[in-house]
Q: What sequence folds into this?
């Protein structure tokens, strides 16, 4: 995968992560929220965060001086 494709995927995942964050907050704010649905959204959000970290490591490797 080339750098541009990685950057596009990273931007898409960051947007999806933000969208899920809003959805989690909105669902949690309702008085009778579905706990299972909330757990699923949080799990998906965590998986996306892990993928974002992986892509960032590929794009911006740590340089040990």
A:
């Amino acid at each position: 995968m080339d750098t541009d494709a990685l950057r596009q995927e990273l931007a898409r995942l960051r947007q999806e992560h933000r969208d899920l964050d809003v959805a989690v907050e909105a669902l949690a704010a309702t008085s009778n929220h579905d706990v299972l649905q909330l757990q699923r959204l949080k799990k998906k959000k965590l998986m996306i965060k892990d993928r974002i970290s992986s892509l960032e490591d590929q794009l911006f490797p740590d340089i040990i001086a």
